[in-house]
UniProtKB/TrEMBL annotation:
Residues in HTH araC/xylS-type domain copies: 230-328
InterPro entries xrefs: Class_I_gatase-like, DJ-1/PfpI, Homeodomain-like_sf, HTH_AraC, INH-QAR
Domain of life: Bacteria
Gene3D superfamilies xrefs: 3.40.50.880, Homeodomain-like (1.10.10.60)
Protein name listed in UniProt: AraC family transcriptional regulator with amidase-like domain
Annotated organism of origin: Sulfitobacter guttiformis
Pfam families the record matches: DJ-1_PfpI, HTH_18
Classification of source organism: Bacteria, Pseudomonadati, Pseudomonadota, Alphaproteobacteria, Rhodobacterales
Keywords: Transcription, Transcription regulation
One example GO MF annotation: sequence-specific DNA binding
Amino acid sequence: MDASSNIVAEIGLLIYPNCQLAAIYGLTDLFRIAGDWPQQKNCTERRPCIRVSHWGSPPDVRQGAANRLVCLWDSYAEQPHDLSYIIAPPSIVMPEDMLQMPAEAEWLTDRHAEGSKICSVCAGAFVLAESGLIDGRRVTTHWAFADLLSRRFPKIDAAAQDMVLDDGDILTAGGILAWTDLGLTLVDRLMGPSAMLATAKFLLIDPPGRQQLPYHTFNPRFDHGDEAIVRVQHHVHAHAADQQSVRDLATVAKLGERTFLRKFTKCTGLRPTQYVQQVRVAKAREMLETTQRPVDQISWQVGYRDPAAFRKVFLRLTGMVPQSYRQRFGVGS
């Protein structure tokens, strides 16, 4: 039997400038393991396998040839290409420092037109965004990059709470190590849940289904240039446990309530009540991670007199109840 008869799909991995090679080689290994490990030792029937190929500019590319991407490596080099999926991996530099990649964007667009499904991981979404293929789509990237992705490509709906979003012909994954989640998602789709679970168990990684919310860190903006709003932000961080109304905060800003509310929302991206909740939950997360204080005591210390209300807000912002969060991230866990 020809080896190619067992190939269920070819997955192309895009190697672009400053991409995370650990993801390239990790995905290559994951897809190989998916075909090898789950099979029974006494099984004589040949199991399906995933073909993997690496794509990028030729090593000896010369000026004028930069728009030509070629296959750099192939697990079944003797077979003609039939790319079912293409993955743009994470970047090892921040999105602000990523180069523009018109050649890679054009290549993704051409392959998508030929029927390939296009995927990205973390900052790989910025490469995918250059192609225009995700305009008008809801996609995910690393939670720390979602705002920049939305600002740079305003037609995109960035949903940073999701680890993997499957939009049929477009799949996007969030964190820098979310290539494991995407890889297992594709194994599940191509080879079934049994092969996916066996691969996850062998690699000692969680099956797909995680969210980014538990990993999200509140990073407020102070560089918007409005001194009155910065003054209120500093006040909120210093007095988060105090009960303060919008009127109280407007007084700190020395502004009318309506003007304050409009300016605060524009500068921070959050309404004052939402901002206070983020600050309080950030302080609660730190206590859950580093102390063994009772949850009800933490609730009181960060400004919630009703522990049930605290648990509700904490669950909404982190995706976990406080006790589960402590079990997962606490230093004594």
